[in-house]
Design goal:
It comes from Neomoorella humiferrea. This protein has a single domain, classed as 2-Layer Sandwich (60s Ribosomal Protein L30, Chain: A), CATH 3.30.1330.40. Helices cover about 20% and strands about 30% of the residues. It contains 2 helices and 5 strands. The two termini are about 25 Å apart.
Amino acid sequence: MTKVRGFRGAVDVKENKAAAILEATERLLRELQNRNRLAVEDIISAIFTVTPDLNAAFPAEAARRLGWHSTALMCATEIPVPGSLPGIIRVLIHAYSDREPVHVYLGRASELRPDLA
């Protein structure tokens, strides 16, 4: 049964440079789309958060590069919890799907949810 589902993911970024942020975000989004068999037209919205040390680019720009032109996108800064993992981009995607979500955690971000990585 097709319904709206939430798909979570995260990826680490090696440096606070626009190219690094966009490349990591594109890799994460492609992996989420592939593992969940999501077409661009299935995707309703995406909320991105970045750790406070990442401010060189908006992750939503990577989604636009992938053709997500009609998708509602929003970016925000993750709360700065002491001792939390730096250099991380997170995403919550809302999409139509008839499958259970496969969440994707790449690189060091797998430390955030070892049960799902």
